[in-house]
Amino acid sequence: MLMTVQDFETAARMRIDPVHADFIAGGAGDEITVRANEEAFRRLRLLPRVLRGSAERALDISVLGSRARTPVLLSPTAFHKLVDEEGEAATARAAAAAGAIMIVSMASTVAVEDIAAAAREAGEHGDPPPLWFQLYIQPDLGFTEALVRRATDAGCAALVVTVDSPVRGAHERDLRNGFLDLPPGLRCEHMVDPREGGRVHPIAMSPVISWEHIDWLRGTTSLPILLKGALHPEDARLAVRHGVDGLLLSNHGGRQLDTVPATVELLPEIAAAVAGRIPIVLDGGVRRGTDVVKALALGACAVGIGRPVMWALAAGGEKGVRRLLELFREELDHALALCGASGVRGLPPDLVRAPAWGPASAHTEREGGA
Ligand SMILES: Cc1cc2nc3c(=O)[nH]c(=O)nc-3n(C[C@H](O)[C@H](O)[C@H](O)COP(=O)(O)O)c2cc1C
Ligand SMILES: CCCCC(=O)C(=O)O
């Protein structure tokens, strides 16, 4: 029975090529940050209030003009057709049905126009939340601008610019497995260049991308821009100064620079740096309803999930992702009720206790890492 995120992973692994499972599960280097994200949530403790609940909990959110029925959004993940024939179209139908915002990866194997059509189809009985589009700014600005226009025309309501990838992370599992490219028949649909008779470009990850490019992008689009992957509080402040509308506080699920801190550990510092001027979405290691409560109480307005979506899609296609999102909804609602909260908004930071450093934390780490 699929009762937890872990169950989806187990079910997925029985169905997919172990090389693809490694691509999903893996991260950079020693995968210290991959583990740290989940462990950090396990180390945090919830301190509930009593005698103050309500009959129903409000789970809906509104962020940068996008309304959603849940604060759990789908972080951008590449290559959904690796694990499901319909790929991102299936994911989009499930997200629309759940009223969840889906961030379309620039490296998706279905084109954004087709993903948007799938979402509309599933949202027939009520407006689905809009899609957002994740972008790696390409040194070829003409190409980048055309892609932004494409995403905008398809109806995407925000741009999520990934800035933690001046070069690609070293994924040793993929290197050992020789998984260096998509298998024949699959391609990154957004990298097809209409100017060059449909040539498919590789996605450039370039160290020359700078704040000037963010300024340039700010000038070419009126869509809200979120930065994904800024981790230093000074960069969070710079983002505000450069007119960025929101942060997706993310360490790329431990797939870029290894040994960076867990995102939830950075959250209080980043929240203090932006001081409410722009919203913060957090991803990395969110696996339980209690994790969602912790992130929201510490200052995020929403959370993203990456690997769980890939596992659910691999385990059960559209239905699998639907069930996963339902599960997060049930767990979140249950945890909020137990915390004495009436909804996801305005959760106070004193709901969360971080254990003191020292011997106590070494003890809990052992417990979490088992
Ligand atoms: C298989 C896979 C593919 C990913 N592809 C992208 C991508 O194309 N663009 C991007 O910005 N982040 C990408 N990410 C990172 C996710 O957006 C997200 O930051 C991360 O997975 C969150 O951590 P979690 O997997 O622990 O939930 C990918 C992550 C995984 C696991
Ligand atoms: C060029 C594909 C990038 C995918 C990605 O960001 C990841 O695997 O983490």
TrEMBL record:
PROSITE patterns: FMN_HYDROXY_ACID_DH_1 (PS00557), FMN_HYDROXY_ACID_DH_2 (PS51349). CDD domains: alpha_hydroxyacid_oxid_FMN. FMN binds at residues 76-78, 105, 134, 162, 228, 250, 283-287, 306-307. This is FMN-dependent alpha-hydroxy acid dehydrogenase. Glyoxylate binds at residues 136, 252, 255. GO terms for molecular function: FMN binding; oxidoreductase activity, acting on CH-OH group of donors. It comes from the Bacteria. Belongs to the FMN-dependent alpha-hydroxy acid dehydrogenase family. Its cofactor is FMN. InterPro entries: Aldolase_TIM (IPR013785), Alpha-hydoxy_acid_DH_FMN (IPR012133), FMN-dep_DH (IPR000262), FMN_HAD (IPR037396), FMN_hydac_DH_AS (IPR008259). It comes from Streptomyces sparsogenes DSM 40356. Residues 1-357 form the FMN hydroxy acid dehydrogenase domain. Pfam families: FMN_dh (PF01070). The active site is at 252 (proton acceptor). Keywords: Flavoprotein, FMN, Oxidoreductase.
